[in-house]
Write a structure and sequence with these properties.
The complex is a heterodimer of chains A (673) and B (222).
Chain A: E1 3-6, E2 9-12, H1 19-25, E3 49-53, E4 60-61, E5 72-74, H2 78-93, H3 109-117, E6 140-142, H4 152-161, E7 166-169, E8 176-179, H5 192-196, E9 202-204, E10 217-222, E11 231-237, E12 240-246, H6 259-262, E13 277-280, E14 283-286, H7 289-299, E15 305-309, H8 315-328, E16 332-334, E17 364-368, H9 372-375, H10 377-388, E18 392-396, E19 407-410, H11 421-429, E20 433-437, H12 439-442, H13 446-456, E21 460-463, E22 466-469, E23 471-473, H14 480-485, H15 494-500, E24 504-508, E25 522-527, H16 532-536, E26 539-542, E27 551-554, E28 559-563, H17 576-586, H18 596-606, E29 614-615, H19 647-651, H20 653-663
Parallel strand pairs in A: 1-5, 15-16, 15-24, 17-18, 17-20, 18-19, 20-23, 24-25, 25-26
Antiparallel strand pairs in A: 1-2, 3-4, 3-5, 6-9, 7-8, 10-11, 11-12, 13-14, 13-26, 21-22, 27-28, 28-29
Helix pairs in contact in A: 8-17, 8-18
Chain B: H1 11-17, H2 24-35, H3 46-61, H4 69-79, H5 83-92, E1 104-109, H6 112-116, H7 119-128, E2 142-147, E3 159-161, E4 164-167, H8 171-182, E5 190-191
Parallel strand pairs in B: 1-2, 4-5
Antiparallel strand pairs in B: 1-3, 3-4
Helix pairs in contact in B: 2-3, 3-4, 4-5, 7-8
Classes of the chains: A alpha/beta (673), B alpha/beta (222).
């Protein structure tokens, strides 16, 4: 713990800190471009120069200088001021003055720091360097003349994403950032380089020339494209969401966001259900709300009602539907649309117990039937970090490219019952061993066998830093954990609902269900996109997408998070809970709430854990059932196309193009400029 | 240098170089080079291997050699590293030719000491022979490049032609050297001044004269 002085103020900093971090601890702002907390230190922009004694009598790059005992650091001296002005002037020599037409304008580090630390005037009157445009795929728009060679994007793709896609060619002034042969950046986190880029060299292609940051209204949301529950900022103007950006949350998404979460934006305005529809003579015709409710009332299902929740539904909607079903005398609720029927009586057994940030510390990990990169890209970056610290990763299931070293044990789920010797050795030597059971594993009975595995290798154990619980289930649906907490699980899964032959099935945006099994039922679809369920529905009630309603979501580790409404639903569409409330009236039952607050209060009264943001306490793991065995071949993973995983994504032209170009190799002609 | 860029990827390029593999002799050498580095750090061998590949391409094409993209991919594959990292190295260092060159790659140094000692004249002599910067002569013999300091300032001006340096040049001596090379003979390398062997002073000592006989401490006089 070295003690040092920053601008005359003495303070103690953690061992291993850099001078830049010491200055930040002292509350001093150090300008920087290349330095980024989550990336390795490059030290090539020179913007963070400070004066350090003892040391050479010249300014030093604080980001790459270790803080040590007795240093005297000045960030306010004449030398530092001149050094920053000098660096700024050099950086601006080749940077174009095109801020008025640059999408980064208003949120540009170079702009801000030029105002704060620059001279306000350049002495350079030679020609500026120009760099040819580089193609980087459908998501990243490049204007490489603006590049200041900070190499953050290069370090991101190598260190965080784990694919060496981006590189710096040539040298000195002629250095150019590009992908190999200008291929598209294909990684599922590739668009994060847009946030990392301190200038306007890499900007968002779909968002190009859409808006200025100061015009946008910001809402704090939660992503629903997977079960990670990434924290997002939803930027909207008027009634339209214009972009989605990640928010920093070290426990969940750090500050990254997967491409499919970021670019669903243009799907939110397309293929929307903006008025009720009724099926007449096997054709859907537009209707009014009263007509739709009359049609529902005419069936009057009574207790013969089933509710299927989709993957992106918030807890309030699910609770409202549960209240309606209960008022009618039914408890046929299910959220596992594809027919999974694992036991969900103990929530600890279906949660990601080691927590997303905790899995980084694991030193032996067995993945059973999960394509982590497709199912939860941000969990894969955590696993990648763990392997960089020396963790051993084993996978049961078909091969995929994890971007880190992993041993694939085979496709047979039964391997889990009797793991090979090298797994045994690794897990016996491990201090924090973990298992991750994915969707394909759950389908083969890996939950119970995984519990047995957890008992055998003591995945739950006390450690120096508290109790370690290495039993993890990785879900894919944002609504799954919330649904399970609210009782959206039948012992026999969706099969129980089919067997009950209900008169009416309410779909809460459930687009992945095979509705041919419900041929005799009236299907009421409460959803926001004209996707698979809308084709099967008899009545369509237009509802709100995740950006258009307040809601509570629980991610795969059991973290309760609240998302805000950014915009209003289009046309006649209403928030889901109001639809369910009105349905209760038309069916002549009372559900016990008349406002969103009352609904939320009722929900919290029933499931108190949903009322406290943060990790829910699910208690201890259950004992493994005797003789539990996983069996069957894991033939493939549930996600076939990781860009088009949900109804909104399927409606998004950007993600459609990503899928076509990056996954299926189609080529697109570039518009001539 | 700013127009330095790899030979574009084309089906012709792939057809010509896609099947690149080491010759038996070079495969042996490559193995030996990789073995110089610790296991798992084989990437460190990228520079010597690129040089080896360039020389093999040179031997096949009767030129100084260059690095077509498929050859870089081959090296990347052998070292199990991403191609973009190999391309970064190859584009960074001027010793790797990333476009085809002629049989003799004439690299004229134009940095300050050489310029003061007459590199403009050397360059003019090259131009007079029909050589242009960045181009290969029609007979495929000479490629002209201007480079930065080659570290021969004490015997400036100089050119580097393939693996050899030619120093203390004048337009005449350069023309002689190029004529000899074109005729298939090997001219004298190093300094071209008669009577000079390496970079010892020409004529009498002009500096550090007190050091001529014995060691002398100059520090007090600074």
């Amino acid at each position: 713990m070295p003690k040092l002085k920053v601008d005359g103020v003495e303070l103690e900093v953690p061992a291993g800190a850099t001078v830049l971090q010491a200055c930040e601890l002292a509350g001093k702002e150090i300008p920087r471009f290349c330095y980024h907390e989550r990336l390795s230190i490059a030290g090539n922009c020179r913007m963070c120069l400070v004066e350090v004694k003892p040391g050479p009598p010249k300014p030093q790059a604080s980001c790459a200088l270790p803080a040590s005992e007795g240093q005297e650091i000045r960030t306010d001296s004449e030398m530092v001021k001149k050094a920053r002005e000098g660096v700024m002037e050099f950086l601006l020599i080749n940077h174009p003055l095109d801020c008025p037409i640059c999408d980064q304008g208003g949120e540009c580090d170079l702009q801000d720091q030029s105002v704060a630390y620059g001279r306000g005037k350049s002495r350079y009157d030679e020609n500026k360097r120009a760099v040819t445009e580089k193609y980087m795929g459908p998501l990243i728009k490049t204007t490489m003349t603006r590049c200041i060679h900070c190499t953050r994007c290069v370090r991101f793709s190598e260190e965080i994403a784990g694919v060496d896609e981006i590189g710096a060619l040539y040298r000195g002034e002629n250095m150019q950032i590009t992908t190999y042969l200008e291929g598209a950046a294909k990684h599922e986190l590739s668009a994060n380089v847009i946030d990392l880029c301190p200038v306007g060299a890499l900007t968002s292609r779909p968002y190009a020339f859409e808006a200025r940051p100061w015009e946008l209204k910001k809402a704090l949301g939660v992503d629903v494209s997977d079960a990670v529950g990434s924290n997002i900022r939803i930027d909207s103007r008027g009634r339209e969401v214009l972009r989605i950006l990640p928010r920093v949350n070290d426990d969940v998404n750090e500050e990254w966001l997967s491409d499919r979460a970021r670019y669903v934006v243009d799907g939110l305005t397309r293929r929307r259900l903006d008025k009720p529809w009724l099926r007449k003579d096997s054709k859907l015709v537009a209707a009014t709300w009263p007509e739709a409710f009359n049609a529902i009332a005419s069936i009057n299902p009574g207790a013969s009602l089933a509710v299927i929740s989709g993957d992106q539904v918030d807890c309030e909607t699910m609770f409202a539907a549960k209240a309606l079903a209960r008022a009618l005398g039914s408890s046929l609720l299910e959220g596992r649309q594809t027919g999974l029927a694992y036991t969900a009586s103990n929530m600890a057994a279906v949660a990601f117990n080691s927590t997303l940030s905790g899995i980084e510390e694991a030193d032996a990990v067995l993945i059973v039937g999960s394509h982590v990169r497709d199912e939860a890209p941000l969990v894969n970056t955590r696993l990648r970090k763990a392997t960089r610290k020396g963790a051993k990763v084993f996978v049961i299931g078909p091969k995929w490219d994890p971007t880190y070293p992993a041993t694939f044990l085979g496709d047979d789920a039964a391997i889990l019952n009797d793991v090979p010797a090298d797994v045994v050795a690794a897990f016996e030597a491990a201090k924090k061993p973990a298992i991750i059971v994915g969707g394909a594993g759950l389908a083969k009975g890996a939950l119970e066998a995984g519990l047995a595995f957890a008992e055998r290798f003591k995945l739950v154990r006390p450690t120096d830093s508290g109790e370690w619980n290495g039993f993890n289930v990785l879900h894919m649906a944002a609504s799954r954990m919330g649904g399970l907490m609210l009782g959206y699980a039948q012992a026999g899964g969706l099969g129980d609902l089919v067997a009950a032959k209900p008169k009416m099935v309410i779909s809460l945006g459930a687009d992945e269900v095979d509705y041919t099994k419900f041929a005799g039922s009236m299907i009421v679809h409460i959803g926001h996109h004209g996707d698979k369920a809308a084709h099967a529905a008899d009545v369509i009630l237009p509802a709100a997408a995740f950006t258009e309603k307040d809601g509570t979501y629980v991610n795969t580790e059991g973290r309760v998070q609240v998302s805000e409404r950014a915009v209003y639903a289009p046309g006649d569409a209403r928030e889901d809970w109001t639809i369910l409330r009105a349905m209760a009236d038309s069916l002549g039952v009372a559900v016990g709430f008349d406002s969103f607050d009352a609904l939320r209060a009722a929900m919290i009264a029933e499931v108190p854990a949903l009322g406290a943001e943060g990790l829910a306490d699910y208690g201890a793991l259950p004992a493994a059932p005797k003789g539990a065995k996983a069996e069957g071949l894991i033939a493939g993973y549930p996600i076939k196309d990781h860009y088009l995983t949900n109804a909104i994504a399927r409606s998004s032209p950007t993600l459609q193009r990503c899928s076509a170009e990056l996954l299926h190799g189609e080529t697109f002609a570039e518009a001539a400029e | 240098m700013s127009d330095r860029h790899p030979e574009p990827d084309s089906s012709e390029l792939r057809a010509r170089w896609g099947g690149f593999v080491w010759t038996a002799e070079n495969a042996e050498k490559a193995k030996e080079i990789i073995a110089r580095y610790p296991a798992g750090r084989q990437r460190s061998a990228v520079m010597p291997l690129l040089d080896l590949a360039q020389r093999q391409v040179g031997a096949e094409t009767q030129t100084q050699g260059w690095l077509p993209l498929p050859v870089m991919e081959y090296v990347a594959g052998q070292l199990e590293m991403p191609v973009i990292r190999v391309l970064e190295v190859a584009t960074f260092y001027m010793m790797y030719n990333i476009q085809p060159v002629g049989r003799f790659h004439v690299q004229v140094c134009g940095t300050t000491p050489c310029m003061l000692r007459g590199s403009d004249e050397i360059m003019a002599a090259c131009h007079k022979r029909g050589m242009h910067l960045g181009h290969t002569t029609d007979d495929g013999l000479f490629t002209l490049t201007e480079v930065e300091c080659m570290g021969n300032c004490a015997s400036a001006p100089m050119v580097q032609i393939n693996d050899d340096n030619y120093e203390d040049l004048t337009a005449e001596s350069l023309n002689h050297i190029l004529d000899e090379l074109a005729a298939g003979r090997q001219p004298k390398t190093g300094t071209q001044l008669p009577g000079r062997h390496t970079v010892e002073p020409v004529g009498a000592l002009s500096t550090l004269t007190a050091m001529a006989e014995a060691n002398h401490d100059y520090r007090g006089e600074w």
